[in-house]
Design brief:
Elements lengths: L2 E7 L7 H9 L7 E5 L8 H9 L5 E4 L9 H13 L3 E4 L2 E3 L4 H35 L13 H11 L4 H8 L3 H8 L6
Parallel strand pairs: 1-2, 1-3, 3-4
Antiparallel strand pairs: 4-5
Helix pairs in contact: 3-4, 6-7
Length: 189
Amino acid sequence: MTRYGYARVSTLKQDLTEQIDEIKSKGVSQNNIFAEKITGTKSNRPQWLKLMNVVKSGDEIIVTKLDRLGRSLQIILKEIDQLTAKKVTVTVGNMTFDRSTPQGKLMLNIMGSFAEFERDMIVDRMQGARAYKRKTDPNYREGRKRKITPAMQQAMREYYKTHTQKETAQAFNISPRSVGNYMGKPKKD
């Protein structure tokens, strides 16, 4: 039997250290910990898929919380069912889920439902905050902040008069497509 760990956070800004340390404290070696920074709503998670290809019958996967496996009940149950079919044990914190027993199924469904509920509440709060901002702030703009300020755009326009789109992109450290978006119809390189 080999013990593996899986750690996941949803954004690049979040830190995996706490989860990894907790998994190590359960006796999992660093080499057997699969960690990634990707949302739990996606089922195509590279490190999770690698782990699924490595585990075999009798192995154990340790995660710190059930929502690390996914943010919807459907994804969580699918992952657990695949592991159960492989005869792989899943331990969440200090709880092991045995889907072959009625109690194990019930606990997994309850905890998975709470993970999905938590995710839905986060999304609802974010949508409410955005709606409020749209209504009350005339300068509110969704999405990433623009990389190019109006002053930079003017400088880029001047530079672009005597240079190609590719050269302009390199000079201003942006993609050629962005140059085209800011400058209008792209010039031939």
